[in-house]
Amino acid sequence: MKNLLINSLFVAICLIILIFLFAAPEETTSKLPNNSIHAEFHQIKSKKEADRLCVACHADGKQAPLPEDHPAPFRCLFCHKREPL
Ligand code: HEC
Ligand code: HEC
Predict the structure, then answer these.
(1) 2-79 fold
(2) Ligand 2 mean position, distance from CA 80 (Å)
(3) pTM, 2 dp
């Protein structure tokens, strides 16, 4: 009897967590663009490897600086995901 109670409680908690996750807002961070500039970065297997090359253009005084309120600019592809090809 006690086991049944514990099991039901467990299932209820799992359901609540699931509903919570499904209700999360859609991911809004922009993806790595799928254009000729960024094409090579879709090819590089290692994200860490690719990340190091982004700041050549995405940094202060470069071609496409990051916005001022941008979060710490490490591991770019962790947030700016690559579209599954
Ligand atoms: C050769 C220069 C160059 C390199 C290297 C580069 N980018 Fe870009 N990126 C650009 C330019 C130019 C734009 C367009 C900027 C604009 O529209 O203001 C852009 C735009 C973007 C955007 C914005 C897309 C949008 O929807 O607004 C993201 C995200 C981005 N790059 C991520 C990356 C990441 C991650 C890397 C490294 C893997 C990278 N870029 C490497 C030049 C570069
Ligand atoms: C912690 C998550 C995170 C990391 C890591 C990160 N970014 Fe961003 N980036 C964001 C968010 C959030 C924005 C705000 C705009 C948005 O929602 O896309 C943004 C905006 C940008 C923009 C402006 C265009 C746009 O989409 O608004 C560029 C370009 C960009 N990031 C490139 C980079 C590059 C290059 C790196 C690595 C050096 C990087 N980001 C690392 C979260 C991140």
Answers:
(1) Flavocytochrome C3; Chain A, domain 2 (1.10.1130)
(2) 6
(3) 0.84
